[in-house]
Design brief:
Shape: globular
Structural class: alpha+beta
Radius of gyration: 24 Å
Largest sheet: 7 strands, mixed
Helix content: 10-25%
């Protein structure tokens, strides 16, 4: 789970209130780079200089960034729409490319300069709690702010927001501050293919926006709100803007799901294998609510994830059983508890020296099984054979089912109503 931001609490509380907690199971699509387009009037994100320390330039007052946002921001109208995404931690060096002018400054604005031409900023941990970006060295966060129409690139991902370089004990963190809607541009193509029907993408946009804002109600980390991976939602920068994704996000702007006037965690996953389950079957510590009580799904059977077969090597099984406190030769693995849809919740493992019952979700994650909707288990000499249905935890929206419903002519509001029953599509003001 990700950590949560204090500065967003007033906004969420003023509009909507509370609910449950956890992480959506993501299915990245790795869409090809040839399909993306720059934002309107944006210059290409290709660097024209090799990495080298940036040189300070003369600065006119109107050329400098207006002010550096603080890590713990107040509830101003501008700050409320910003999310802070952890791109990386434990970094000792990085190269951040910029397609045009950038401003580089310390958080208190004591040190600052601009770089006018496209190029690359060399970033490094400089020892004694200091970080350095170009020629600027400081023991406080350094901010790289792109000017209008400039994009930042790190590890082939393209970002439109400001990047904060935050010194840690012996390394630094890279954290992007991005507008919520721009953040969603960088989430959707890696949680659902940009080539899928628009109505499915719009359902995904609403689910991802709701999940993000619900998460922001309880941020505890000082420097970031969200991870850029499946601990929150997959994110690879809002600088890549696929036309279909941009349309889906823009046409659902400010729309979220609520239940009894409150935001809730709109979990989603790849494929439910014919039906979703109650959230408490996945995590018994989460209080069940009607939108997460399970739903019928009749539109996901077209996917290759609908049914599967996997052979797990005995060495991996042995490693798991040892971690679970079991020794001896494996005798059997049996499903001893399951939901009405056939999704296992309890697995009992029997060896020559003992027996143990474990929850299915950590079991499947440890072994790399696609889901807990397991229909067959057979032990062989060198492996254990599993068969089943679905991909992911099976809670909330089934992404393959959403695509199937969209292909059948259903609107995004109907898709959301099906997978989050009793929820309300709400527009934030």
């Amino acid at each position: 789970m990700l950590n949560k931001a204090r500065f967003l609490t007033p906004f969420i509380c003023a509009v909507l209130l509370t609910a449950a907690c956890a992480v959506p199971s993501a299915k990245g699509t790795g869409a090809p780079a040839t399909a993306w387009q720059q934002p309107q009037s944006a210059s290409p994100a290709q660097p024209t200089q090799s990495p080298s320390p940036a040189q300070p330039e003369e600065k006119n007052a109107d050329e400098l960034p207006p002010q550096a946002p603080q890590a713990d921001q107040s509830s101003s109208a501008t700050a409320l729409k910003i999310v802070r995404i952890l791109l990386a931690d434990n970094q000792s060096s990085a190269e951040i490319k910029h397609s045009g002018r950038v401003y580089v400054y310390t958080q208190d604005l004591e040190k600052k300069y601009k770089v006018s031409a496209a190029g690359t900023l060399a970033v490094r941990f400089a020892g004694n709690g200091h970080v350095q970006a170009g020629t600027l060295k400081s023991n406080q966060p350094i901010i790289i702010e792109p000017a209008k129409d400039t994009l930042l690139t790190w590890k082939d991902n393209i970002y439109a927001g400001k990047i904060f370089i935050i010194p840690a004990q012996h390394t630094f963190l890279l954290v992007e501050h991005a507008d919520l809607e721009t953040y969603l541009y960088g989430v959707l193509p890696y949680e659902m293919s940009y080539s899928w029907p628009l109505e499915a993408l719009k359902a995904q946009a609403v689910a991802a926006r709701t999940y993000t804002l619900k998460t922001l109600e309880h941020v505890k980390n000082k420097y970031f709100d969200l991870y850029s991976d499946v601990r929150s939602q997959m994110y690879k920068g809002g600088g890549k803007q696929y036309p279909s994704v941009k349309q889906a996000v823009d046409e659902t702007k400010n729309q979220v799901l609520t239940y009894n006037g409150n935001l809730f965690y709109t979990y989603y996953h790849g494929n439910c294998g014919g039906g979703t389950d109650n959230v408490s079957s996945w995590n018994p510590h989460i209080k069940p609510i009607k939108p997460l009580a399970g739903a019928i799904c009749e539109s996901d059977s077209h996917s290759k994830s609908f049914s599967w077969k996997q052979d797990i090597p005995n060495s991996k099984i042995k490693s798991y059983t040892q971690q679970a406190g079991l020794s001896g030769k494996l005798k059997s693995i049996k499903i001893t508890q399951k939901t009405h849809t056939g999704r296992a919740t309890k697995i009992t493992i029997h060896t020559s020296k003992g027996t143990k019952t474990v929850a299915c979700n950590p079991f499947r994650l440890a072994l790399g099984l696609k889901s807990c909707k397991i229909s067959e288990i057979k032990i062989h000499n060198n492996h254990v054979h599993f068969e089943g249905r679905g991909y992911g935890h099976g809670i909330g929206m089934c992404q393959d089912g959403a695509a199937g419903m969209a292909r059948q002519g259903k609107k995004y509001s109907q898709i959301l109503k099906n997978y989050y029953p009793n929820s309300t599509l709400t527009t934030l003001k």
